[in-house]
């Protein structure tokens, strides 16, 4: 159980979605922050650039 950042009401985990909280008063929904296994942005950027390069090859 938590507290809504918008209205301050009580919040509970959404039973249909993992990692999502739902306010019982104003029905606001937000995702809980996830712990990142990546130490920084560079590895993510490099993998994204590789995927773009592969996609570009597929379009030719």
Describe the structure.
The chain is α+β, with helices and mostly antiparallel strands. The chain contains one helix and four strands. It has a four-stranded antiparallel beta sheet with strand order 1-2-3-4, with no helix packed on it. Strand 2 and strand 3 form a beta hairpin. It is elongated and about 50 Å long. It starts with a strand and ends with a helix.
How are the elements arranged and paired?
Blueprint (H helix, E strand, L loop, with lengths): L1 E2 L6 E4 L6 E4 L5 E3 L9 H19 L1
Antiparallel strand pairs: 1-2, 2-3, 3-4
Roughly how many Å apart are the termini?
52 Å
Major beta-sheet overview = 4 strands, antiparallel
**Coarse structural class:** alpha+beta
Tally of helical runs: 1
Q: Element order, helices and strands?
A: EEEEH
Rg (CA only) = 19 Å
Give the oligomeric state of the chains in this entry, treating copies of one chain as homo and distinct chains as hetero.
single chain
Which regions contain 5 or more consecutive residues with pLDDT less than 50?
none
């Amino acid at each position: 159980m938590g507290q809504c950042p918008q209205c301050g009401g009580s919040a509970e985990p959404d039973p249909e979605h993992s990692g999502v909280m739902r306010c019982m008063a104003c029905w606001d929904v937000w995702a809980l922050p996830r712990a990142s296994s990546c130490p920084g942005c560079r590895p993510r950027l490099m993998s994204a650039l590789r995927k773009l390069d592969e996609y570009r090859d597929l379009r030719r």
